[in-house]
Amino acid sequence: MKTKTITHLLYLLTTLFMASCAGHQTSKSATANIFAPIHLKGGAGTQLKQLEEQVKAAGFEMTNGKILYAGPRDDGSHWVEYQDQKSGWGSAWPNWAYESALASLLQNKKVTVAFKNGEPVGRNIVLVLILSEPTLSKPQDAHE
After folding, report:
1. Contact between 82 and 88 (Cβ < 8 Å)
2. pTM reported for the whole predicted model
3. Cβ neighbours of residue 86 under 8 Å, at least 6 residues apart?
4. pLDDT tens-digit profile of 40-74?
5. Do residues 50 and 40 touch, judged by C-beta distance below 8 A?
6. 1-37 pLDDT per residue, tens
7. Quick check: 67 and 80 in contact, CB under 8 A?
8. Where are the domains of the chain?
């Protein structure tokens, strides 16, 4: 039952992902690949690898990390600071992406971000997926 729920969730995510990529040129084979059925086996790490393969097949990049800050700006935009294993970025994110970033920050959860044009900033972001893994493994990490 759990595998069916995850498969359905990934189908919905890929549908939203493709809808958000309307302005990005993808080949027919890449579009076909992202809508190919995903048969999930193994744990969460394996499932993330499968999603990453689908994202890359569509011509995008994907990284896992955490949200360090998410908040409104005076001009009405939403600023997000995101950090993965290699680097960190701060930019105004689209409203839909900001909502996921804020939720992951408030829930202390890691995120997966798919993006185009080389960096996970602003309008380059095409998918934000909140993971079940917490950002802090030990309480003392918050004070380091």
Report:
1. yes
2. 0.68
3. 63
4. 456 777 778 888 888 898 899 999 999 999 999 99
5. yes
6. 444 445 445 555 555 555 555 444 444 444 444 445 4
7. yes
8. 1-59, 60-144
